[in-house]
Amino acid sequence: MSQTALDCFVANVRSTWGPLSTEMVAGCRSHLEGLLQASPTEPWLAALLAEQPASRELYRDPDHGFVLLAHVEPSGLYRRPHDHGRSWVLYGVQSGDVEMGGYARTEGRDGRVRLVKRDATLVRAGSAMTYLPGDIHDTRCVSGPALLFRFTERDLAREDKEEGRITRFVEQDGVWTIGAP
User: Fold this and answer.
1) Is residue 48 part of a domain?
2) Per-residue model confidence (pLDDT) at position 92
3) Distance between CA 27 and CA 25 in Å, rounded?
4) DSSP 3-state assignment of 28?
5) 79-105: per-residue pLDDT in tens?
6) Does 165 fall in a domain?
7) Which of 85, 87, 130, 152 pairs with 161 at a CA distance of 20 to 30 A?
8) Strand partners, 92
9) Cα(163)–Cα(141) distance, rounded to whole angstroms?
10) What's the domain range around 147?
11) Using CA atoms, how far apart are residues 162 and 46, in angstroms rounded to an integer?
């Protein structure tokens, strides 16, 4: 039996895995971009395209802890600025177009945290973006439904809910800032 693109992705990432480094992140990103080229006739991808789940876990590594999720997002869906705590993350777009904005966290004279948007990138099918620990970004599906793969160094649900390490920002008086806890 031949391996699927998903099986190859997992094997390749496992062989690349190690401490956070430029080479390791680049290798994982290359493997993700390879996964984005999977044939839509592969059963796992055909099921995602047919069912269009809002979120589905595709793989969780029992040894290294990395997680691959699939998300189907409708046109116009906006996810406000956030970071990923201690984790680094790769987003890959399999179909559709998603705009991803990058932000810098600053502090005003009044001590209030403010975000300054530094850029926006239109991520099209076949492309991936990298976010390192501390990076802040938002996403907006501009052409959907879009199928995104989100590869995370660790379980972000645990990072968020159990450890409270993920920061989500809120808009107050036209400024993105940290909301009340």
Assistant:
1) yes
2) 98
3) 5
4) helix
5) 999 988 888 999 999 999 999 999 999
6) no
7) 130
8) 128, 149
9) 29
10) 5-156
11) 34
Name the domain count of the chain.
1
Q: Which two tokens stand for residue 82?
A: 């956030």
- Note whether residue 36 is domain-resident: yes
5, two tokens: 């693109």
**Residue 125 and residue 96: Cα distance in Å, rounded?**
6
Rounded-to-integer distance, Cα 30 and Cα 148, Å: 15
Strands 169-172 and 89-107: unpaired
5-16 and 43-51 helices, crossing angle to 10°: 110
Strand runs labelled E in 51-174: 56-60, 67-73, 78-82, 89-107, 113-124, 128-131, 136-152, 169-172
Q: What CATH code is carried by the domain that includes residue 54? A: 2.60.120.10
Q: Does residue 61 sit within a domain? A: yes
The one-character DSSP state at 126 is T
Q: How far apart are the first and last CA of the chain?
A: 51
Tokens of 120: 């926006």
Give me 74's structure tokens: 């409708």
Q: Kindly report the pTM of this predicted structure.
A: 0.89
